[in-house]
Amino acid sequence: SQQGEEDPQALSIQEGENATMNCSYKTSINNLQWYRQNSGRGLVHLILIRSNEREKHSGRLRVTLDTSKKSSSLLITASRAADTASYFCATDSYNTDKLIFGTGTRLQVFP
Amino acid sequence: DAGVIQSPRHEVTEMGQEVTLRCKPISGHNSLFWYRQTMMRGLELLIYFNNNVPIDDSGMPEDRFSAKMPNASFSTLKIQPSEPRDSAVYFCASSFLAGPQETQYFGPGTRLLVL
What we know:
Chain A has no helices and eleven strands. Chain A is mostly beta strands. Helices cover 0% and strands 54% of the residues of chain B. Chain B has strands at residues 5-7, 10-13, 19-24, 31-38, 42-50, 53-56, 65-71, 74-79, 88-95, 105-106, 110-114. In chain B, strands 2, 4, 5, 6, 9, 10 and 11 form a seven-stranded mixed sheet that branches. Chain B has a four-stranded antiparallel sheet with strand order 1-3-8-7, with no helix packed on it. Chain B starts with a strand and ends with a strand.
């Protein structure tokens, strides 16, 4: 069963614009991670945010976490054509030792 | 360093045939995961190993699926007999330490088509 659901399902923007993707989950979590998947490739880890953190940055990535709303957002600033990929959130919870992936957001960045 | 290696990259087979997917995790990694990705069901965890021992196989769809990890550098996922609904991309991933908070490193996947 999927814990996380990304919104929107698909997003198209121009190079240089910011891209924001949201992830909502159902049960309390320990950690939330974001992964990227380029077409035809495996997933690549981007960033992890713990349940006691509210915001985290890594380069052009900014992740926020609102545990009261059970949601997270991933912001990619100054997007590039190379950012074109699917982005997945993944959560782990107190009552499971597995990572559960969401449904993903397909991002298309036009040059 | 080489990442996670999977073979074959593509497999086309007929219903009823046995399919074996192979994975070599990153050297030194102690956990290994098998996932299946489809449009309908997304990314599903099938089974994972810690130190070559299967820990949770609750995601294995049915008895037709089996996985082994005979040593720290090799794992197989076998489907026997295969069915058209098994068509999917199968990913192997590994992590240095056990635990869902650990970064998982994914292989390129095996695209399986069962006719």
